[in-house]
Amino acid sequence: MDFEFEKKWRDLLTEVSKNMDEPLDMQSLIFMIGVQELNQGFVKLSKDQKLDVMHIAICTLMEPYGFYEYTGHDDDGWPHFKLVKELPVLKPDEQETFMKKAILEYFDKEK
After folding, report:
1. Mean pLDDT by 10-residue block, N- to C-terminus, for the chain (111 residues)?
2. To 10 degrees, the CA torsion angle through 69, 72, 74, 80?
3. Is 25 helix (H, G, I), strand (E, B) or coil?
């Protein structure tokens, strides 16, 4: 286990959870990234739209790795992406580590 990596992850969770009512987890961070990338402020979202917001986040997180390419916004202002190459098949723990790394890199870019 990479203790420095896990420390960075825990520090990020602590930092972004400071102004929240409860601690955030990876799913919460992914949703938060999607909302940020949607960039429409406070809007009420349906269940399907919440899933779409999470998809926006996943595409945004995977874009630097060459898996997705941003193609523009639709008339409603929602960002769209196209799949460039298939995501690798990973074991659950490998997938979690990969997502953590992508999220850490996303927040590093935002600084």
Report:
1. 88 89 90 92 88 96 96 93 94 94 91 59
2. 10
3. coil
